[in-house]
Amino acid sequence: MEQVRARLRGGPEDGREVSVPADPTGHPVPRITVPVRPPRERRATPPPLLVYERSGSHSTGTWDFEYVGAESQT
């Protein structure tokens, strides 16, 4: 599957750029989850996943994904 560049907007990962899968038309998937960077100490439960949704594209070919919240890993 093809990959496209995405810029994360808002939330703890604001400004970070990642590669996300694209559909056959070249558009990125509509929603991604990003694991929280693990803290140095061990936790009893896994850290949450940050949820970002596609919100638009730039002429540079990088797509914006807006932070919409977090969900627990199960």
What does this structure look like?
With 74 residues, the protein is an all-beta fold. The protein is 0% helix and 47% strand. The chain has no helices and five strands. It has strands at residues 3-9, 17-21, 31-35, 49-57, 63-71. It has a five-stranded mixed sheet with strand order 2-1-5-4-3, with no helix packed on it. The radius of gyration is 13 Å and the shape is elongated. The mean pLDDT is 88.
- Uncertain residue ranges: none
Order of helix and strand elements from N to C terminus? EEEEE
Number of strands: 5
Distance between the termini: 26 Å
How much beta, percentage-wise?
over 45%
- How would you describe the oligomerization state of the chains in this entry? single chain
Radius of gyration: 13 Å
- Tell me, rounded to a whole number, the average pLDDT: 88
> Roughly how much helix do the residues carry, as a percent range?
under 10%
Largest sheet: number of strands, sense, barrel closure: 5 strands, mixed
Which sequence of strands runs across the widest sheet? 2-1-5-4-3
